[in-house]
Q: What sequence folds into this?
């Protein structure tokens, strides 16, 4: 499932995100959502989240 809708993402959800420095390559980082950083209901490039461990990126896939 794509990560463009905020309602689909909850704290504790396992996701793949793309970090800012990896946007050109599209390299994905897997992790568990610690905090949701985007306030709007949806975002065309993915909802920005902080993963456990401090990685910040935009959700590209929801794994759970």
A:
């Amino acid at each position: 499932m794509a990560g463009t809708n905020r309602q689909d993402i909850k704290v504790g959800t396992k996701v793949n995100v793309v970090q800012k420095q990896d946007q050109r390559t599209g390299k994905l980082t897997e992790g568990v959502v610690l905090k949701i950083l985007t306030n709007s209901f949806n975002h065309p490039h993915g909802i920005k989240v902080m993963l456990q461990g401090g990685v910040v990126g935009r959700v590209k896939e929801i794994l759970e």
